[in-house]
Specification:
Blueprint (H helix, E strand, L loop, with lengths): L1 E4 L5 E4 L20 H4 L2 E5 L2 E5 L10 E7 L4 E5 L7 E5 L5 E6 L3 E6 L2
Antiparallel strand pairs: 1-2, 3-4, 4-7, 5-6, 5-8, 8-9
Bound molecules: fe (ii) ion.
Fe (ii) ion (FE2) binds next to loops.
């Protein structure tokens, strides 16, 4: 799965391998911004995981979505300004949690 930015600045998830998009792939954790405000914080308790992003949720600067990637399944929760960027999901080994900031792009945290 890849996250790409289109020429019109829309962001798309590619669910299959597609050729000739490497220059549009958004690299996670690559923007010069505060890691602690963008990388999803993942807390495991028993079989559940809480994913939260400690980021402002202002009109012009907020977390647009959080996605949990299990490899064979993705769960995405969308947010708007004023929401709390948080979701609870089942734990699975190797899962990844992504967040997307409208100004600072894609961030990821991988559970071991
Ligand atoms: Fe941000």
């Amino acid at each position: 799965m890849k996250v790409v930015k289109c020429n019109n600045n829309n962001v798309m998830l590619l669910l299959k391998e597609v050729e000739n998009v490497d220059d549009k792939v958004i690299k996670s954790n690559s923007v010069d911004a505060a890691f602690e405000k963008h990388v999803p914080v993942v807390e495991k308790k028993d079989t559940k995981v809480t994913v939260v992003v400690n980021h402002v949720m202002e009109e012009d600067h907020y977390i647009e979505w959080i996605m949990v990637d299990y490899g064979d399944m993705q769960i995405i929760k969308h947010f708007k300004p004023g929401d709390e960027p948080k979701m609870e999901v089942d734990y699975r080994e190797g899962m990844k949690a992504y967040s997307y900031c409208n100004k600072h792009g894609l961030w990821v945290n991988e559970l071991k």
